[in-house]
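$ ./design --mode recover --in tokens.txt
reading tokens...
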């Protein structure tokens, strides 16, 4: 059995209370990892084209600031 399969089995066996705690922890971890990836992509210039397009759309009236 793979490590992932073992983890899946353990999660399925959690109590309702522990599953809720695990879910909250996992969602927070996932959000932190996503924020980290966005920050790394920004620093690496991977978002530059999208930012430029958004600014062009804003200047041309095809978008609005929120």
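writing sequence...
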């Amino acid at each position: 059995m793979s490590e992932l399969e073992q983890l899946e089995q353990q999660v399925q066996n959690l109590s309702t209370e522990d599953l809720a705690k695990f879910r909250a922890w996992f969602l927070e971890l996932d959000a932190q990892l996503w924020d980290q990836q966005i920050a790394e992509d920004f620093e690496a210039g991977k978002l530059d084209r999208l930012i430029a397009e958004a600014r062009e759309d804003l200047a041309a009236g095809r978008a609005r600031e929120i």
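exit 0
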